[in-house]
Amino acid sequence: MQKKHLEWLSKFSPEQQQRIKDLGEGNTEIPKLIKLKRNRKPVEVHLGDVFLVSNKQGLYFYGKVIRRTNSKSPAFSWSKESFVAFIFKCTTVEKNLNSYLPNYDDCVCGPDIFDVSYWGKGYFEIIGNVPLTKEEKKMDIGFFDNNWKWGKVFIDSQGKILSHFPQYFGSSGFTTVVGVSLNLSVAYITNPSLLNEHNNALPTVNTEAINNSDKTIRNFKIEKSSEITEKFQKEIAPFIWVAIDDGFSVCLNVGHYLQDLFASRTEEGFLGNGYDWESLARVFLEEKRPNLLDEIDFDSEAGMFCAYSDNKDALAEFVVSFKKTCENKPLIAKLFSMVKID
Predict the structure, then answer these.
(1) Which residues pair with 325 in a beta bridge?
(2) Are 294 and 314 in contact (CB under 8 A)?
(3) Cα–Cα dist 224/243, whole Å
(4) Radius of gyration over alpha carbons of the chain, in Å?
(5) Which residues on neighbouring strands pair with residue 171, listed in sequence order?
(6) Which residue spans within 19-106 are E strands per DSSP?
(7) Angle at Cα 178 formed by Cα 172 and Cα 183, nearest 5°?
């Protein structure tokens, strides 16, 4: 399998090979998988379920459940319920099946074994079910297992030893969240076109309308220009713009940006998590953008700050002006001093 990996790696440019190597060796930070859906009830997973997975806001990879493992087999006893699934090199910016084009011979992940908690915790979001075809039911799938009893062998999803080298193979061990995100990140490197739909979906904005974060912005308009799209995304980074089903949202993976600001009030209980960021953003709106109070809502979590709105112009005005304020250290410190711990 190591030989196959080296053969695969040799297909890419030296720059791509180095970027892949940096990811694998930890020299480049691997983004976290995004929890796409909150599940208050246990999630039922079925063969044929098509799901989405993402580590980049607003861009989703498709996956499909192909087999259910036999949890009674010693090889899979580490999980009460797990499934065999593939994640494909086809992406979408919308949570539907319109762009679902599976190709089992060129996948991001698969076949891999996923515990049901991937769906339960919201990392995988089921968006539909496409019944298994005859070809999918007959797929030659196996998993490499190094067992103390029978040695190095390939087994099927039921734990039975295979007498041949399977056409599609993976490891019999549990697939980690970091491992999935690593594979998604590698896919971006080896297939830059996967990002095209995502980039085309980003909003564009005339940021020249914002000259001072202390002034109320009037006549703020979003432009339709691919050239300004990249400018807008850079303008708001590390905040990320996301198109959602019923509007738009702005997110921030917390823990790095302005962490020193929150650290200054650690003794009071501030951690710099998503809820702390939301409290800061609310003070910002009250003090600097009261005209947007009725337009912006929040849905933050511990690991992520999230603001959303069905008014694209209002949300764009908020994120650009909020980012400019964050870069003004005296001003953001003053606003933070007004935040009360929840």
Answers:
(1) none
(2) no
(3) 15
(4) 23
(5) 144
(6) 49-56, 59-68, 82-92
(7) 80
Q: Is residue 61 a contact partner of residue 51, using CB atoms and an 8 Å limit?
A: no
Token pair 């580490």 is found at 78
Amino acid at the residue 162: L
Give the tens place of pLDDT for each residue, 223-276. Answer: 433 333 678 888 898 998 887 666 788 889 888 899 999 999 988 889 898 889
Express each pLDDT in 130-165 by its tens digit: 999 999 999 999 988 776 566 678 889 898 989 999
Taking CA atoms, 151 is separated from 136, 144, 158, in Å, by 29, 10, 17
Mean pLDDT confidence for 153-180: 86
* DSSP code, position 178: H
pTM above 0.70, yes or no: no
Q: Could you give the CA distance from residue 216 to residue 97 in angstroms, rounded to a whole number?
A: 42
DSSP labels, 225-293: -HHHHHHHHHHHTTSEEEEETTEEEEEEE-SSTTHHHHHTTGGGT----HHHHHHHHHHHHHHH-GGGT
pLDDT of 3 reads 59
C-beta of residue 100 within 8 angstroms of C-beta of residue 85: no
Cα torsion at 257, 258, 264, 270 (round to 10°)?
A: -60
Cis omega (within 30 of 0) for bond into 238? yes
Residue 42 and residue 120 in contact, taking contact as beta carbons nearer than 8 Å: yes
Judged by DSSP in three states, 128 sits in: strand
157 in Cβ contact with 67 (< 8 Å): yes
Measured CA distances, 118 to 52, 83, 103, 170 (Å): 11, 10, 22, 18
- Exposed / middle / buried, residue 320 (Cβ in 10 Å: 0-12, 13-18, 19+): buried
Strand blocks (E) in 130-244: 141-147, 151-155, 168-171, 240-244
Which residues on adjacent β-strands are paired with residue 151?
A: 147
Single-letter amino acid code for the residue at 279? S
The pair of structure tokens assigned to 84 is 């065999």
